[in-house]
Specification:
504 residues; alpha/beta; Rossmann fold; Isoleucyl-tRNA Synthetase, Domain 1; four-stranded parallel sheet; four-stranded antiparallel sheet; binds zinc ion
Length: 504
């Protein structure tokens, strides 16, 4: 079965066909870097990581772009709010780029901990001002924008005459207008409340501003993604992703900009949106103040959860749901995820044991009729099922359920010689290899350090003391030698047993 993906733009599942094979272009809206990433921010990158891994597995040459927003994304997604990067810089007496760099570095650490492969290109909005100005000029020349007081606004009503504003998010301009009528109040320089900034003029006190044909200013938030995706993936590319909360206005505006520019495309062929992460039913967001940062989650320093959860437990937690379903966060859900993750890891540990149980290769020479072993069909079906879920709109929940089904079978085979004899070694080897590939390479789940080194060391020292008291000197020597191999020496002092780093 070929891979199909749900396209928000057409509102249906579509068989995936690359626009320009063998290359597949992916773009995911990245973080706005003025504070630490929270768990809700991680869902899109984890989903897109699995998508990238799977497309590569299928033989595509993926170019994955995920941007860094370091300018232009104003408070409340509005056109007149404060820039949070500039605000943080002002408050802490830093250069805005210091703030952006600091949080970008932390974001990359978080993503690496979660097992997300780095994007191929990670462009920053502030590094692509020229491309953004170029895009504004095209939109102005095509008659879909206007300049006023050094700012440039996208003309939504004019655009809507020719295209359909609201096409992506399934909104109707008249209804959107009705919703904004109250706060028009005549103070805005925009012609229509639906119009959005492509370029905002900025006075000398503004920390981040650049020269432009319309005077000093900075780009509107939506502009960077249209400009940078075009630069690195072309005027139309395969898949654009992001959270559902970005669908409107951000992605709707991106699409309008690309359509109104010289690209004349809806930017991406497939628009893919992951659902939200909720906490007790409410969306996790910085603005609602109910967010849990990834660092706090990994360290167990959140007020709302009882303990720490490892990055791989968190990754499993995000993948155990289909990306289009909401996920609700709780201690119970995370503990269940930890159990599931460990079960998959135990499965990885079972594979070499299973391999060792297999008989050696049959003596060659006799090419006569060999009946198919009766257990082959079931194992082959369970193995094929692992991909059925991924092919069906990247349903990782289904894929994980299939992994558990296959694992149950492999466990039975490992403990029941008669069952093992009913499956041909080649089929079993294939099943085991596929299990490992899907868990580690496609879902990106890896084994984590199993134990706390500090605790293991004090336990070993306790055994050492016990052996010494019992005058079991062979054991004492054995423990000394084992620790020495780890670069640690045991010291018997008057105060008791201590350890030190070996200085040899
Ligand atoms: Zn974006």
């Amino acid at each position: 079965m070929p891979l199909s993906l749900y396209n928000t733009l057409t509102r249906k599942k579509e068989e995936f066909q690359p626009l320009r094979p063998p290359v597949v272009g992916l773009y995911l809206c990245g973080p706005t870097v003025y504070n630490d990433a929270h768990l809700g921010n991680a869902r899109g990158p984890v989903v897109f990581d699995v998508l990238t891994r799977y497309l590569r597995h299928l033989g595509h040459l993926v170019r994955y772009v995920r941007n860094i927003t370091d300018v232009g994304h104003l408070q409340g997604d509005a056109d007149d709010g404060e820039d949070p990067v500039a605000r943080a810089a002002r408050a802490q007496q830093l250069e805005p780029m210091q703030v952006a760099q600091y949080y970008t570095t932390r974001y990359r650490h978080n993503m690496a901990a979660l097992g997300c492969l780095p994007p191929d290109i990670e462009p920053q909005a502030s590094g692509h001002i020229t491309e953004q100005i170029q895009l504004v000029e095209e939109i102005l020349a095509n008659g879909f924008a206007y300049e006023i007081n050094g700012s440039v606004y996208f003309d939504v009503p004019r655009y809507n005459e020719q295209y359909r504003y609201g096409q992506l998010s399934n909104r109707v301009v008249e209804e959107l207008l009705a919703g904004t009528r109250d706060n028009l109040a005549g103070q805005s320089e925009k012609r229509s409340p639906l119009d959005f900034a492509l370029w905002k003029s900025a006075g000398p006190t503004h920390l981040m501003r650049w020269p432009s044909p319309w005077g000093p200013g900075f780009p509107g938030w939506h502009l960077e993604c249209s400009a940078m995706s075009r630069k690195y993936l072309g005027p139309e590319f395969d898949i654009h992703g992001g959270g559902l909360d970005l669908m409107f206005p951000h992605h709707e505006c991106e699409m309008a900009q690309s359509q109104a520019s010289d690209s004349h495309t809806p930017e991406a062929r497939i628009w893919l949106h992951n659902n939200m992460l909720t906490v007790n039913g409410a969306k996790m967001s910085k603005s609602l103040g109910n967010f849990i940062t990834l660092d706090d989650l990994f360290a167990g320093t959140t007020g709302s959860l009882s303990q720490a959860y490892s990055p791989m437990t968190v990754r499993f937690f995000l993948l155990q749901a289909h990306y289009r379903s909401p996920v609700d966060l709780s201690d119970d859900a995370l503990q269940a995820a930890r159990k599931g993750y460990r079960k998959l890891m135990n499965g990885l540990r079972l594979l070499p044991k299973l391999q060792a149980l297999l008989p050696g290769a049959a003596p060659g020479g006799d090419e006569g009729e060999i009946p198919t072993p009766p257990g082959d069909a079931e194992v082959q079906k369970l193995t094929a099922d692992l991909f059925a879920g991924l092919d069906d709109d990247l349903n990782t929940a289904r894929c994980i359920a299939s992994l558990f089904n296959l694992l149950r079978k492999l466990n039975t085979l490992a403990t029941t010689p008669a069952a093992l004899a009913s499956v041909s070694p080649a089929v079993l080897t294939e099943a085991a290899a596929t299990y490992a590939t899907v868990v580690t390479e496609l879902l990106g789940l890896r084994d984590e350090p199993r134990a706390n080194a500090e605790e293991l060391l004090s336990l070993t020292l306790a055994f050492y003391t016990e052996a010494k008291t019992a005058k079991a000197y062979d054991k004492v020597d054995q423990i000394r030698a084992a620790l020495k191999g780890q670069g640690i020496v045991i010291k018997d002092t008057k105060a008791g047993v201590e350890w030190a780093y070996s200085e040899e």
